[in-house]
Amino acid sequence: MKKRGKKVGSTLPKRDANVVFNRRAALMTFVGGGVMGTILFRMAQLQTTNLFSREYTNAADENRFDTRIIAPPRGVIYDRFGAVLAQTSKDYQVAVVRDDVEHVDGRTPAQDLRATLDRIGAILGLSPEWARRAQIKVEGGSRYEPMPVHEGLTWEEFNAINVRLPELRGVVAVSADVRAYPYRVVYAHPIGYVQKPTQRDIDRALEAPEGESRAVYLRNPHVRVGKAGLESRLEDTLHGQAGWRKVVVNARGVEMGEDIEERREPVRGSGVVLTLDHELQRTAMQNFGEQSGAAIVMDIYNGDLLVLASAPGFDPNLFVNGIGREPFRLLNEDEKKPLFHKAVTGAYAPGSTFKMIVGIAAKQAGVEDDWSVSCPGYFPYGGRNFHCWERRGHGRVSLHNAIKHSCDVYFYQAALRAGPERIANVARKFGLGQHFDIGVPNIVDGLVPDPTWWREHRGEGWTGGLTLNYGIGQGAMLVTPLQLAVMAARLGNNGRAVVPRLVREAPGVSESPPPAPIAGIEAEFLTRVRDGMFGVCNEPGGTAVRAGNLELMRDPVSGAATARTLENAAWQPVQIAGKTGTAQVRIISAAERVTGVRSNASLDWRLRDNALFCCFGPWHEPRYACAVVVEHGGGGSAVAGPIAREIMKATLSRDPARREAARLATLEPQTPVRA
Question: Which CATH class is domain 66-274?
Answer without folding.
Answer: alpha beta
